[in-house]
Design goal:
The chain has a domain of 305 residues: Na+/H+ antiporter like fold. 79% of the residues lie in helices and 0% in strands. The chain contains 19 helices and no strands. α5 packs across α8, α8 packs parallel to α18 and α16 packs across α19. The N and C termini lie far apart (66 Å). Keywords: Antiport, Ion transport, Membrane, Sodium, Sodium transport, Transmembrane, Transmembrane helix, Transport.
């Protein structure tokens, strides 16, 4: 008698746990990814080979597809028209909100590694410590736009000027973080080839920056061109529709005075009209049946192709996926198909698997170490304050200093909205930690401290933003 394979039951339990725990964290903490991360930690560390197969290649591959789909979807949601309205101020907040956390994170982790304050960390050369501190600081430079958007959407703040400013700053922030991810990956590849990090040249850093700028420029140029084409086509269709209505009205007036014989027309002409109408009807049916699949296939091919190109040039494949999503953002019919067939159906499952695969790499024996948690808590405090100070870049008043105090108070709260919305990290920070660990750039001890900081910052950011919105 054949026995039921336990791996199948355990994998079903894994999927159900992802959904259930993710839903609980979504309702309680407004941060689903933390629950999915916890499930990945438990299933990835307890009984490897029984709770989950020892070879998790297929699961990790699904996770990789999931993060590409998440980043592509974020690019499609980017509205260049809204971003232009707050581009200058949003760019300033994003740059300031990335440079300061990266610098403070670099200094904090560098001090920990230099003084051997992390348990289990071996003595390393200065070059290796610098790269490890840079990778950790870069992970804390990102912002979780998903948390901010979901909370503001529930409160009706997403379409307001402050909502536009926050989303613009967070998007630009994530683009800068994606460029930093390319630099970290380039450094990791250089280390893998040479076996050391002391011989890293200037091109190791410059190549991903130049490649990323090129990828962004080409994508924005294509997006702008498509947006102009769509706008021109919409105007032409409106003019044609108006002309058709005018001709139809004139024709109806003339036909009212025609006799019955003229109205009947030639039977041969009628047959041609019927045949032409049948062909057009079949063409419309064919287009309606296969157009969504063709559009989705085109989006997948362009997204994967641009990701491969970005990685080949020395940038990040995620940046390529994001820019490819921006490229399709003006095409409403394409984005609607993607939303219906991927965002609403496949994306929740794929993203859950991705965050679980990050949990696979977190060792349970170290994650609950009191010393590492303590350093992670202190790191989270520093990282939170380094993002909160972006509120100083939000102007209190657009008018003169003599503006009434009562009229300035809501503007002052907008500062707190921006500052607290930037605190939460999320999927991109965790991804950068995972990539740095896989590249051999980040040690396990530094990875645990950085992960704790990201988790705590996310919880603090979501709670603080919710509090500010309630008191608004």
């Amino acid at each position: 008698m054949k026995s039921y394979p336990p791996e199948t039951a355990y994998f079903c339990l894994f999927l159900v746990s992802l959904w259930l725990v993710g839903t609980i964290f979504e309702e309680l903490a407004r941060c689903r990814l933390l629950g999915e991360l916890l499930v990945g930690m438990l299933f990835g560390n307890l009984g490897v080979g029984t709770l989950l197969p020892s070879d998790k290649t297929a699961i990790i591959l699904c996770g990789e597809i999931g993060i590409l789909a998440i980043i592509f979807d974020a690019g499609m949601a980017t509205e260049l028209g809204r971003i232009r309205k707050a581009a200058l101020r949003g760019t300033l907040i994003a740059v300031f909100g990335t440079v300061v956390p990266v610098a403070t994170g670099f200094g904090f982790v560098y001090a920990l590694l230099k003084t051997n304050a992390l348990p289990g960390a071996s003595i390393r050369e200065t070059g290796s410590i610098v790269v490890e501190a840079l990778a950790s600081g870069a992970a804390l430079g990102s912002t979780s736009i998903a948390c901010a958007v979901s909370l503001m959407k529930n409160k009706g703040l997403l379409e307001t000027p402050v909502g536009t400013l926050i989303t613009t700053a967070a998007m630009i922030d994530d683009v800068i973080s994606l460029v930093l991810l390319g630099i970290v990956a380039s450094i990791g590849a250089s280390k893998s080839d040479s076996g050391t990090t002391t011989d890293i040249g200037a091109m190791t850093v410059l190549q991903p920056i130049l490649a990323s700028l090129g990828i962004i420029f080409v994508g924005l140029l294509g997006c702008t061109t498509i947006a102009k084409f769509v706008a021109r086509r919409t105007r032409n269709q409106a003019v044609e529709l108006q002309d058709f209505a005018e001709v139809a009205l004139e024709g109806g007036a003339r036909n009212g005075h025609k006799d019955l014989n003229t109205e009947c027309g030639d039977s041969g002409a009628r047959r041609e009209q019927v045949a032409g109408g049948y062909i057009k009807k079949q063409a419309r049916l064919f287009h309606r049946a296969f157009a969504p699949s063709i559009k989705l296939a085109a989006m997948v091919l362009v997204g994967i192709g641009y990701s491969i190109l970005a990685e080949y040039l020395g940038s990040s494949r995620l940046l390529g996926a994001f820019v490819a999503g921006v490229f399709f953002s003006p095409l409403t019919s394409f984005t609607q198909v993607y939303k219906e067939q991927v965002t609403d159906i496949l994306l929740p499952a794929l993203s859950a698997v991705f965050f679980a695969t990050i949990g696979f790499a977190i060792p349970l024996t170290k994650i609950f170490s009191p010393i590492l948690f303590g350093w992670g808590f202190l790191y989270a405090v520093i990282a939170s304050l380094s993002k909160l100070i972006t509120c100083l870049l939000v102007p209190i008043s657009n008018k003169s200093v003599s503006r009434a105090v009562d009229d300035q108070r809501p503007r002052a709260k907008e500062r707190w909205l921006v500052g607290t919305a930037m605190i939460a990290r999320g999927e991109l920070g965790l991804l950068m930690v995972q990539q740095a660990l896989l590249q051999g750039v980040l040690s396990e001890a530094a990875m645990v401290v950085t992960t704790w900081s990201i988790i705590l910052c996310t919880l603090v950011g979501v709670s603080a933003l919710s509090f500010v919105m309630r008191t608004r």
